[in-house]
Amino acid sequence: MRPGRWWGFGGFAAATAAVVMAVVALPGSRPGGFDPVSATVALLALAVSVFSVQMAVRASRWQHRDVTAAAAHLLVDVLDEANTAHRHLLGDAGTEITVRFLLRPASAHNAAGAATGSDLSQVVDYYETLSPRRMVIAGAPGAGKTFLALELVRRLLRRRGPGDPVPVRLSAASLDTGQETATAVETWLLHHLQQVYGLPAESARALVAARMVTPVIDGLDELDRAERPGYASRAGQVLRAVNAYQDVSGAGAVVLTCRSTTLQALAGVHLWVRDAATVEIVPVTAAQAGRYLAGRAALPGRWAPVLARLRADPDGPLAEALSTPWQLTLAADVYEWRDPLADGFSRDPAELTGAGLDTPEAIRDHLLGLLVPAAVARLRPPGDVGPERVRRWLSELARHLNANLEAMPSLGGRVLSGTDIVPHELWPLAGRHRVRIAVAAACATLWSGLYALVVAVTLSAGGEVSLSRHPWLLVIPPVMVFLVWDGWRVVWHRPKDVNRRPLMTRAGRRRFAGQVGRTAGAGLVIGVCCGIFLEYAAGRGFAAGLAAGLGAGLPAGLALGFFLEPPVPRVRRPWEVLRTDVVLLLGSAACIGVTLGVALWLADGLALGGVMFVVSWLLVVPATGNLALRYVAFLLCTRRWNRRWLPWRLGRFLRWGYDAGLLRTAGIAYQFRHRELQDHLVRSP
């Protein structure tokens, strides 16, 4: 049965029960016993509220059904995200390196219309000539695959027409390879659009079904630790899922980035992206590297030894080390930085021509070794810690990610990522069971103490604990046991969200006020009717029932109206996830605390009502905030006394790493700026 029919059936059943009760049980009603009048009114109010809530939910679902409007909203957020990533990759200089690429013909399954090659400035024209529009960007480590894909996204968005799809970047590590292959990419896109951009499920489903979203999958080579992944590898599973992604004309549009060696290994087991044009990025020549360094330098004379070496030995170790945009940009970042409080530059580029740097690997490790101290000198980290401590914390994260890559462990049906750093999902770093045991023990201890406090206050207020007078005391222990068990049972908690963008427009505020008003009114009617019914049945009278209903129904209705407000498209950064989850957690706890506190205050006195307000807060927050509580337990389990030490303010540290250019973002996850940096931190902790 469709969900809308369930709503209608529930409202019809409540109204029918109200009519039957009014006809059959109305005669003979008496105060202090069962009151069919109150029950009839309550059921009628329930029917009305069910209808009101159903209409609000239907309005929220149809609000984003228009695919064109949803795509337009999505474009704004995707373009903003792409521009931010572009500025972050280029750094302060903002100078692009000309990236050229050549077609690498495959033995079969080539896309039609592919030219022999092009460059960064013509990448959109090259892509739009492909039929189908499937493109694989290959190259050496640091060749600029991510940057080329990002530029393709930015330029496609700027050229996009009303009916064109919206390209969306995804990290290959975020694909759940346990999904059915035929629908894995669709499910992946649905989850990404809802989690990262806040699209309602109906809007995301409509966009994916209409193929109005083009997945741009980055980092296929970062899924497996093996140098030559096979058919059953995670990279192989992603390729099979991409091949199964279809539209009405055949193969669905997709863009994918991967190292050349990984593609060759997969081709060796007869696995490749079908009907795609595979292009390979050409290495930067010594002359191009020299022109880039001279053009970016504040004082080109400082780079004279490096430029001379590049001209004299265009195929030597220095030219080979600077043949990738990643290491070329890294060299400029390290040696062009100058302390604002000093007159000169911090380092001399002539170091790159030293006797000890006679291999490309030695030059790479030298540059990577200077990156963390340069980042710390450029932007002071939280707590004003030194580069040694920053390097240790980053190395701990890198070791955890590389261990996941080597063993590919699965936890709760999910393979732990080897590239993504999601703060609230990082708790397995401290041990698979240690954090969960700490949370369960803390909740059990807290709730046992709260229960004892409630019993003590009840004894002092009423003289004795009577289950007939206080039946809710019998319900609390099994509820606590269930909550402890449920917190242990759920391995991965999904973050909640708080929407504030609807209040930024007049239409949004009007819609929000109307919805909250409807649900608050429905909650008020239900609360008053139920309160009158319960209090009148207990012999306390109409006034007590009215007060109890007002105190309990109105906060519940307001909470329901707030939490039903449909989400709108917006980009979620990694640092927003825990913050918004905690805000919603405290808001829900406040609504429940006020409701229970007022109801028990009117029923049993101010002392018990006040205690229950505090108790409900301390009971609800751990019960509904397992994500935040588990994150706090994880931080407690990664202190200095532990062999795995991370900063107490981990979120602030990761945000600093992003601002300092050591990390990048991919959806709601952080990643190291480059895989080579992650590997270097493990090799040289």
UniProtKB/TrEMBL annotation:
Gene3D superfamilies: P-loop containing nucleotide triphosphate hydrolases. InterPro entries: NACHT_NTPase (IPR007111), P-loop_NTPase (IPR027417). The chain crosses the membrane at residues 7-26, 38-57, 437-459, 471-491, 512-536, 542-563, 583-603, 615-637. The keyword Nucleotide-binding does not apply. It comes from the Bacteria. Residues 133-260 form the NACHT domain. Keywords: Membrane, Transmembrane, Transmembrane helix. The keyword Acetylation does not apply. Pfam families: NACHT (PF05729). This is NACHT domain-containing protein.
